[in-house]
Amino acid sequence: MLDNLRAYLMVFFRPTAAFGSLIDRGNWLFAVLAVVVVSMGFQFALMTQSLRGVVDEPSRAPVATDSVWGGSPDSDESDEEDIPAPRNPAVRSWVPLVAGWLFSFSLVDGFSTIVNLLVLYVPASIFTMTLLAYIGSFTVAIRRDFGPLMICTCAAWVASHLPGIALGLVLPNVLGLTPGFIWLVTTIYFGILMVIALRTVFRVGLGPAVGTVSLSWLSLLMSGFLFALLRPFLLLYLIPLGLAAFVALRSAHLSQQRFRRNLELATLNPSDFDAHLQLGLLYLQRRQTGEAVARFQKAIAIAPREPDANYQLGCIAREQGRYAEALAHFEIVVGQDDKFATSEIWREIGATYLGAGMTDEAREALEKFTNRRPFDPEGLYYLGEVFRTTGFPDRGRECYERVLEAVATMPPNRRAETRRWRDLARERLKAR
User: Fold this and answer.
1) CB under 8 Å to 108, separation ≥6 — which residues?
2) Cα 304 vs. chain centroid, distance in angstroms?
3) pLDDT at residue 8 in the model
4) Can you count the helices (H) and strands (E) in the chain?
5) How many angstroms from the chain centroid is the CA of residue 101?
6) What is residue 231's predicted lDDT score, i.e. its pLDDT?
């Protein structure tokens, strides 16, 4: 439980690392209880702010337009200004505030939040993601990713609504915030955290994550209609089926967590570099680059010429602009296997030389790669960049056109991965 609490607090400062930790160690019961408690606190904060506005509203004395004795409008009585009646001290006391809250608060609303997240929002997010990115079919994705996404969604909801409680209970008197404004701020913050959570769970780009967050919230609009429609069948059918599905999905998530713990245990063996390598790949998929680098470095400390770890370290170094270090790692890989990763090692070497401004070496490496993989859009784009920067625009244009052709002839599941190179090639062709 303490690990879960630390991870929830880490969401405020390092959300990617926090979501990765929750995927590996997150507890479902803790997540459900955290959402229920914070939901009740958030409801209390908004209701208190609303009731405070009513309780603090000053009462005013009635205003007479004419004298009760039929006096003239020009009389002195008619010239008197409206004078607010003195406030009743009892009205300003805490009694109406607490009484209003007790009669308005609904315990069911606190639990409806977690039901809406589990039954509507998380499945809708997975379904939307299957439409925007190639992550497999919905039936496969929900069995594989429901548990991790549910844990991360609960953490994002709790982290986004905790500040709302503070805004509702402490700061409104100072800033004059309305309940609607507080709700809007927490909703936007929840959306931002969900983008990070989706990228961590599904290992997708920013576009599919933002698109999913923009669409999946529509599922919450169906909550009232859905529960009203299915209420007669709720006790007889839906609750048993829902509990069975909940248990099955939780078991799938627990098996993933056990696999992660087994890898951690395997790293205790001082000669087992593969466990560190696999953990590094998991961290890399979740965009936890620092943790991934640490694992890859431990792997090559055990096996200095291990090609997979050196290849990954070289790719990370290239992306971060450390070209000399990247080339050193790639040299080790090529020394072990000239066709490593179906010759993608030469594409990475060519891209590294291109980034370092060594165009002759980049052209040699990329031509070797494109001869072996003539329909790889990324390699063709890099080769086109080499020709463009070295004064061969026609050859560069030919490479860009081959990029478009390669993407157009790919299977649908690969087009989403290579869309970036298609768009970049189109921009180059339009600029010429």
Assistant:
1) none
2) 36
3) 84
4) 21, 0
5) 34
6) 52
